[in-house]
Design goal:
With 659 residues, the chain is an alpha/beta fold. α1 crosses α2, α5 crosses α6 and α18 packs across α19. It is globular, with a radius of gyration of 27 Å. A hairpin with a 4-residue loop joins β26 and β27. The strands form 7 sheets. It has a 7-stranded parallel sheet with strand order 8-9-7-10-11-6-12, sandwiched between helices. The protein has 19 helices and 28 strands. The chain starts with 17 loop residues before the first strand and ends in a 6-residue tail after the last strand. It binds a DNA duplex (12 and 12 nucleotides) through β1, β2 and β3.
DNA sequence: TCAATCCGTATC
DNA sequence: ATACGGATTGAC
């Protein structure tokens, strides 16, 4: 592969002698292709998508060959490619376009996105022939699609996939749904049309479910699972299985959204509200947005799925970009458990001595009956560690800034609430819902629940599933299963009862998405219960008049999402508006914003203090101004980096943590 | 007048 | 990071 030869003997390739290269230098002002000459000896290997080494500003750096051209617009003389690292075309043209679009949208660099999209090379793996991937050896299973008949537009959607049409849907999965199997069926329909599929789930446990379902529906060797936990060799091996088009279907956690497949026909994201979908590395793209962009660019089908519905999912429906797939009320009634609220007493909840008081009698009774009937009981408790926020002491509405609707917090030891977004003090705060002027801090959840419940139900097995140790499944026998959100094991035959405790801690988080997130977690847990006809019941320990609780009781995620979106329109929050955050030392933030030619509609909020000696500014624009905003911020970053500004500034579009 | 050095800027 | 060009300085 080496193109090195004796000095001076290199000649350019006859045809398309120019290689357009994305160099591995993550500086915003160098975020554009650079042209190099292809030595004749490297002509064959220097195909679009290969890794190359080039001399750039005196240094040897890596890069990706984006395309070949006959001529270059560059005035100066071109240098030769130093070498083609390997002939493996790891950057698919579809992914190259996607990565550029994502970089543009998130005010980031192409190289940064490519680093997220393409796993590090493993030469030994690359030299091997791609093996047929291992999977559950089983003959292709049930006839695809029957399970989709329960949904109003379900059968039509599968038909569209089978015909290779770019159908886009937001799917509200029924409680108790074998969603992994439905997704596998959708994948099979798409594969049947000769197209590829990319499926993204939030964590390893969900991936296992999808992996098994795909094995059953597609048979062996038709898909790979890309797990973030894989070692570098296996990760690259599976990436190559997709990249070399050995499999039509890729399923995986976040990074799998970049997986190349031949003739992409469908992208799927399950439970798109999960915060694991927010990429923690620059430029911080969200998996849902990446996949929707991908579907848009590839003109393929998309499926945004979950028991819950996010504001973003709702927006896709309201703008007409996607169609709804949901079950009718009668079908829903047949699948849903009986759900009832029971008030909690905040005084008792705060008293560490009142252990059993956290289990109101309705919840206790529901659990007891389920255990007696021989069924397991799921108890969901929040994880500790949420940011303390403040809420009305009377009606518990989260306290929001009268000026910009940002969350109020208590700064320092004083009692004056201060907005976390715009920094204004709200000394005269009165609750807009009930008029009360009394405020209280929210409490965090407790982890002693397992022991407490052990005492509440003597003789019953108590199992826990949480961050440290996650249970996949529990048998259909009496047991109390205490789990944190996202770690709920599936129960064979469903839980007899699901108890949602300490909801207060979830609902009063100062996060913009607190209610949406609480709703999502409750629905995901409640979906594991048996149908009401089979004795399944859910008890949510929360005020029954709260909208999220109402939506849960009626199992109406659509109503709740529409309400949330309407509220965010009112308040100017994402996804109804676009927000960017700029975080860094004061001088740096000021410097960047001074250089930024922001859209005329841009509204600046802040500054507010951030970690360490940093501060944060928020910039709000209408959704339609997203690209001008990103472009302005990227350009301003470019000006700073060209000037060798040393103080770092972090730019995020639609930041995941809006406090 | 020329060479050594400094500074800013582009990096193909 | 490094390399190059134009400006600047200093010695003859």
């Amino acid at each position: 592969m080496t193109t090195k030869s004796t000095r001076g003997e290199r000649v350019p390739a006859d045809r398309l002698p120019v290689a357009r290269v994305c160099v591995d230098v993550p500086l915003p002002h160098l975020d554009r292709p650079f042209d190099y000459l292809v030595p004749a000896a490297a002509d064959e290997a220097a195909q679009p998508g290969v890794r190359v080494k080039v001399r750039f500003a005196g240094q040897l750096v890596g890069g990706f060959l984006l395309s070949r051209a006959e001529t270059s617009p560059h005035d100066g003389k071109l240098a030769y490619l130093d070498k083609v690292v390997s002939a493996e075309q790891v950057l698919d043209p579809e992914i190259a376009r996607l990565a550029r679009a994502v970089a543009d949208r998130y005010a980031g660099n192409l190289v940064d996105v490519l680093r997220l999209a393409i796993p590090p090379r493993h030469a030994r793996v690359e030299a091997q022939a791609t093996p047929v991937p291992a999977g559950d050896a089983a003959p292709p299973g049930p006839p695809a699609g029957a399970g989709w008949d329960a949904y109003v537009a379900g059968a039509a959607y599968l038909r569209a996939l089978a015909e290779g049409r770019p159908a886009r849907a937001v799917w509200a999965a029924l409680p108790g749904e074998d969603w992994a199997m439905r997704i596998a069926e959708a994948a099979a329909a798409t594969v049947g049309a000769g197209r590829g599929v990319v499926i993204v789930v939030a964590d390893a446990r969900d991936l296992d479910r999808v992996d098994r379902a795909l094995g059953r529906v597609l048979g062996d060797g038709r898909h790979v699972a890309l797990n973030a936990a894989l070692g570098p060799a296996e990760r690259y091996r599976r990436f190559l299985a997709a990249s070399r088009h050995r499999v039509p279907v890729v399923a995986g956690t976040r990074a799998a959204m970049w997986a190349p497949v031949a003739k992409l026909g469908l992208v799927v994201i399950w439970d798109d509200g999960d915060d694991l979908y927010a990429e923690p590395r620059a430029p911080y793209p969200h998996a849902r947005e990446v996949l929707l962009t991908r579907a848009q660019l590839a003109d393929c089908a998309a499926l945004v799925a979950g028991h819950a519905r996010t504001g973003e999912g709702q927006l896709l429906l309201e703008t007409g970009w996607a169609k709804e797939i949901a079950a009718g009320r009668d079908v829903l009634r047949a699948h849903a458990p009986a759900i009832a609220p029971t008030g909690d007493d905040p005084q008792l909840a705060r008293d560490p001595g009142a252990a059993i008081a956290r289990l109101p009698s309705l919840a206790w009774e529901g659990a007891r009956q389920a255990l007696q009937a021989g069924a397991p009981v799921l108890v969901q408790v929040p994880r500790r560690g949420y940011l303390p926020s403040i809420a009305c002491a009377e009606c518990r509405s989260p306290a929001r800034c009268p000026h910009c609707s940002g969350p109020l917090g208590l700064a320092g030891a004083r009692d004056v609430p201060v907005c976390r977004w715009c920094g204004r003090a709200a000394a005269a705060y009165a609750c807009p819902a009930c008029g009360s002027r009394r405020l209280r801090a929210s409490v965090t959840g407790a982890r002693r629940t397992a022991e407490e419940l052990g005492r509440a139900f003597p003789g019953v097995t108590v199992r826990t599933s949480g961050r440290d140790e996650v249970l996949d499944a529990v048998p259909a026998e009496p047991a109390v299963v205490v789990a944190t959100p996202g770690a709920e094991p599936v129960a064979a035959g469903g839980y007899g009862a699901v108890l949602l405790l300490d909801t207060w801690a979830l609902l009063t988080r100062s996060d913009l998405r607190a209610a949406e997130e609480a709703m999502r977690r409750w629905l995901n847990a409640a979906a594991l219960a048996r149908p009401a006809a089979g004795g399944g019941r859910v008890v949510v320990v929360a005020d029954g008049s709260l909208a999220a609780v109402q939506a849960l009781i009626r199992w109406d995620p659509a109503w709740f999402a529409a309400r949330e979106l309407a509220e965010r329109r009112e308040l100017g929050f994402p996804p109804a508006a676009r927000l960017a955050s700029v975080t860094g030392r004061t001088e740096a933030v000021t410097d960047l914003l001074a250089a930024a030619r922001l859209p005329a509609e841009a509204e600046l909020l802040g500054p507010v203090p951030a970690d360490g000696d940093q501060e944060r500014m928020l910039i709000r624009v209408p959704r339609s101004r997203t690209l001008p905003l990103s472009q302005a911020l990227h350009e301003a970053s470019a000006v700073r980096s060209a000037r060798k500004a040393t103080l770092p500034v972090r730019v995020e579009i639609d930041p995941a943590d809006l406090f």
